[in-house]
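Case study.
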Amino acid sequence: MIMIATIQMDFWLDGWIIVTAILASVSAAILGNFLVLRRLSLLSDAISHSVLPGLAAAYLITANRYSWTALIGAIVVGLITVWLTEMIGQYGRVDEGASTGIVFTGLFAVGLVMIVQAADRVDLDPNCVLFGDIELSPLDSIETFIGLVPRATIVLTVCCIVNALFVVLWFRPLRTATFDPQLASSLGLSPRSLHYALATLVAVTSVCSFEAVGNVLVVTMFIVPPTIAFLLVNRLPAMIVVSAIVALLAAVLGHISAVAVPELFGYKSTSTAAMISVVSGGFLAMAILFNLKTGVVVQALRRSQLAWSILSQDLLALLFRDSERGQPPRAIADISKTLLSRPWVTAMALRGLVWQGYIKREESSNQAGAPAGNGLVRYELSSVGRRKAQNLIRSHRLWEQYLATTAGAQLDRVHAQAETLEHFTNPALRQQLDSETQQPQSDPHGKAIPPEDSGKI
Amino acid sequence: MIATMIATIIFATMMDSIATIFTAWFGFDYNTRVVLAGTALLGCAGGAIGVLLLLRKRALIGDAIAHATLPGLAISFLIATGLQWDGKSLWILLPGAAATGLLGAMTVIAIRTFSPIKEDAAMGIVLSVFFGAGIAMMRIIQQIPEGYAAGLEGFIYGKTASMRFQDAWLIGVCGAIIVALLVLFRRQIELLCFDESLARTQGWPVTLVDIGLMAATTTIVIVGLQAVGMILIIAMLIIPAAAARFWTWRFWPTLATSSVIGCVGASIGAMASTMAEKVPSGAAIVIVLVVLFSLSAIFGRRNGIAWRLARRFRQRHETDGQHLLRSIYEWLEFQGKKPQDFGQTRSASFQLSELEFVRNWSPSRLARTARRFERIGLMVQVGRMHWALTASGIQQCVRAIRQHRLLELYFAEIANLSPEAIDRGADYSEHALDDQMLAELERDIAGASNAYEVPESIHPIGSREPQVAQVGAQLGTDHGKFPKANQE
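After joint prediction, the assembly is written out as follows.
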């Protein structure tokens, strides 16, 4: 809020910058989905670098930034990149990464030399090649029926529409070729020509967004939003839509932060394209950490939740066994030693169980029954906790019986296996185990199997 | 350690001698010599590390590392300027660059390990996002008074002119350490490159060696930033290594070749850029390297395109020749004028156009082969359009047809191929028959008695069956009634 309050935006200027950024982001993201899924992410890097000589040649010929020549030059060089990459990979027996690296660095170097040589004649700064100059795009505007519109915006609008049409019209072939190239070729869909079509559009998009975001940062726009979408959703249409939305958000937030963040430190605004890249990176980091399927944090939470519930169940079972054997209640140190858990974790779990009402906590004065040195606090099962523990022990012993009698496991191994399986056994499975082992009364070690407690009070 | 010291000494000597060579040959001034020597060493070390990266299929991680150095450069410059230090000192900039470069490499590995994102996407992400962060900071650096002349842009495209003697030394020492480590851990590295799982089962610390490789790559990238720039430094790692693959397939020779190519490419490129004012040195070096790569790809002894084409051309010649000989025989046999291996010095005459009934030829290809046969004395022209085989031509002809028919017999009787597959199979494999295999075929199929006879064809002759029958009928021979190809 503080940030936004301090920004002063020119509605016309910043409005067009944001619109241009959104168009560049979205048109790249739409295609990027297929690059990411087909593991061709670095193709965008390669093509965006290698279109440079095509562009430079077009600039030299027409001395104009936007021209059909530039587009054709870029498409030709883009296709050459793909073809050369294939050739070098095939004949040089190197992997795709290496052949890509050779082709795009070579072509980029040629383009760089051409641009530097022509610097007097063409207004193109080698540094802008890398990160573009979206801030300057409103300066080059043309009159249209809705007023003065930056040229870059018009070009990117067309590009975005073309990409969207490509994806919509060729959706089925693209999907098949992406997920099952063999099936696609057996259906006569020619994944190879689709590959070249995709490469062509990547080249076109790189060229169209060249002025705005440059050739390194466009890679972010191709890869990052689709990757985020890949982490968030499962289906291809949803992935495309999500990637477009992410691209849009990143573009808007990117421009805002490009203006606002440096102001916090007392500087003027920084590059919008660069900040879009940084913001996308931030989005991706959050997606990696927090997405519901595979998020690192989410998975860690799930794991610790599982560990927690297993520890709680083990605690209940331990207390049940103790009372079965008629042992006096134990202290925390003793419990954590038995269960091989850290004392503070055990204490937390016990507190949780007390809070849930499964366990009674007793502050006892030093009674005769308590062994010396065990402290003052003792824990016992409540009646609800006893029921829960009873079912758990029943699961454990039924499994032992099943493993020993029906599955034919060795007697000294059944305990460890049952210890794992007991936590994943529901009443129905217990029922099944019970009937498969002919309703035993005791487990292979001779312990009595407690009856099922249906939980109704 | 001793190896490291020795290698350092060797490298230092090399640097001196390279500088001397440059002076002697080209009369460069001292500073240029230093730059050239440093760049040459960089190319050398880059080529060596590149081979390992290539074999580990990690070539583009260098690109990610290189791009990820930009924010490190910017941050360390900002901090140093904030503390009133000299922000342009390499001793401040390079550690920062190394830190974010390594962070980038680790991020790639972390993304690959902890999320379902694939490695290629991870590299693209790290490359572009780190670079974006760097660019955002560079824009801010440009706004502070000291920043404008910082020359940090030189790190993006490379600016050898700014290289000083100590920089060349830095490159030399780093290169020496890397080469020494390569020599020290040669067994582990070789094993890791070719059989990772064996290396694991033998108990080598694979991950550690991998991290060492990453560290070495980062080192090369960092010390190379000045000379080549972060965008194109990856070329110094990949291109020499890939070029070396066209010359040899063995590990150490590849390493040596790659180093030499890197060294030559880097020094020529740096030289070119010192002569041509405007060309960024990175671009010049990469272009020279690409030229070297193309030369290797064309003329390399292994898989080079020129050799490959030559081999294919030779093979096609041979195949065409055998096909022509065979069709001549088949045509003459079809007309009842079989060439006789003994007693005939000239076969019956035939026209080239007639052979088209036996086989599908393009007329120009047929004429070309015929002219070649005439040149080497297998065929002579007897009248307009008419040709005949010479004695040696007959010999070759009989040999070719015997090979083909023996193979056909083999396929029919022993391999039990279907009739359609027999002719085609023989067609493909007859060219690869050597004398020993031919002798075995003779023993197995024909028996010793008729060792020099040509077996009868087991299928109708001619690629255009009905027409052949027609021609046969017109000529009035009793071969006119061939069994139809589609009889069964």
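Observations recorded in class. The beta strands of chain A are 141-144, 147-150, 359-363, 377-381. Residues 299-436 of chain A form a domain with the Arc Repressor Mutant, subunit A fold (CATH 1.10.10.10). We will return to this complex in the next lecture.
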